[in-house]
Amino acid sequence: MIRYPNGKQYVPSQTKPATAKTKNEKSFSNRGMTLEDDLNETNQYYLEKQIAVIHKKPTPVQIVQVDYPRRSAAVIKEAYFKQSSTTDYNGIYRGKYIDFEAKETQNKTSFPLKNFHAHQIEHMRQVVDHGGICFVIISAFNEVYLLKAEQLFYFWERCENNGRKSIRKDELDQSACLIKLGYSPRIDYIKAIDSLYFS
Amino acid sequence: MIRYPNGKQYVPSQTKPATAKTKNEKSFSNRGMTLEDDLNETNQYYLEKQIAVIHKKPTPVQIVQVDYPRRSAAVIKEAYFKQSSTTDYNGIYRGKYIDFEAKETQNKTSFPLKNFHAHQIEHMRQVVDHGGICFVIISAFNEVYLLKAEQLFYFWERCENNGRKSIRKDELDQSACLIKLGYSPRIDYIKAIDSLYFS
């Protein structure tokens, strides 16, 4: 049982941040694991095996009030979750800049584009313009897909031009690369990167 | 005057996170600006001018308790600052992965290596091993220096081998590249990257 400097006990269920993670736990592969957990484990595997250096960025938080109790660590007493202006994951692989976002849906027939906000798409465009490797890992329809940012832009623009607001399953099957789930690493997306960007 | 959803007022002086930033304000160039402020402004300039895509990572926070008031945003009621296992800044420039940390000292004669922790040095080694461009921006002695990670490793190992625990001013003058301070961008470190890595 974890106890914090103030002696309080860490109670995960009530205290989880209000991120996709909480939602994921119900859905992702029904293994009680979240997509984020699996990607973190995978990135740790890549790091230890010296395959790639890719980390999840911390959750952006707007800090409003901090207390500085004597003889103990600073305590954040009031803060709010902020929307990220970039993607969640970045790093380096084979000397190239890697940048991606991970999303999932419970939908059975399509992936809703409302999972992204304009800032993230704009960031992905900038990364692609500067020669980076940019993509989305999508957990949907009991599969995990790697969709290149360039493909995502096509569906995003179709939506902006009053087209459909989601990517149909058959469209994803055609335009994305399936990632095989394993034990370790759990989501071996580097294989997909190799075939999509290095071959 | 900023007011948050709860109507509370944002009072920067008491509420700044307990990072280097608070310290910096007393010292950095005596312009009331922090090194972090100037680097954020510089990165924003690079982004708008489409020169590079480099962002500061959010401050890592261990969230302990979150309230979910009805009809309003989730409020983090208890959280603690976490030590980062990576560096603060990364991104892409001229197709290459960029990764750096920014530090400053009030010391007059040397830069103390205790400004870094082993995790950060280890991360920098991994970045260099994978072909990334990795360095430290050091604000010291009324100058701003760009020191290549490879040079920092030398001083770090000297310290680990019971050598001195800091980098002397004359050593920094010899091994680092001076960054000229300007109005916009304020800290034009890309010029130093060009001369150190692309020429």
Automatic annotation (TrEMBL), chains A, B:
It is an enzyme of class 3 (hydrolase). Its EC number is 3.1.21.10. InterPro entries: Resolv_RecU, Restrct_endonuc-II-like, tRNA_endonuc-like_dom_sf. Coiled coil: none annotated. One of its GO terms (biological process) is DNA recombination. Residues 1-33 are annotated as: Disordered. Keywords: Cytoplasm, DNA damage, DNA recombination, DNA repair, Endonuclease, Hydrolase, Magnesium, Metal-binding, Nuclease. It comes from the Bacteria. Pfam families: RecU. Its cofactor is Mg(2+). The keyword Magnesium applies. Binds 1 Mg(2+) ion per subunit. It catalyses: Endonucleolytic cleavage at a junction such as a reciprocal single-stranded crossover between two homologous DNA duplexes (Holliday junction). GO terms for molecular function: crossover junction DNA endonuclease activity; magnesium ion binding; nucleic acid binding. GO terms for cellular component: cytoplasm. Endonuclease that resolves Holliday junction intermediates in genetic recombination. Cleaves mobile four-strand junctions by introducing symmetrical nicks in paired strands. Promotes annealing of linear ssDNA with homologous dsDNA. Required for DNA repair, homologous recombination and chromosome segregation. Belongs to the RecU family. HAMAP family: RecU (MF_00130). This is Holliday junction resolvase RecU.
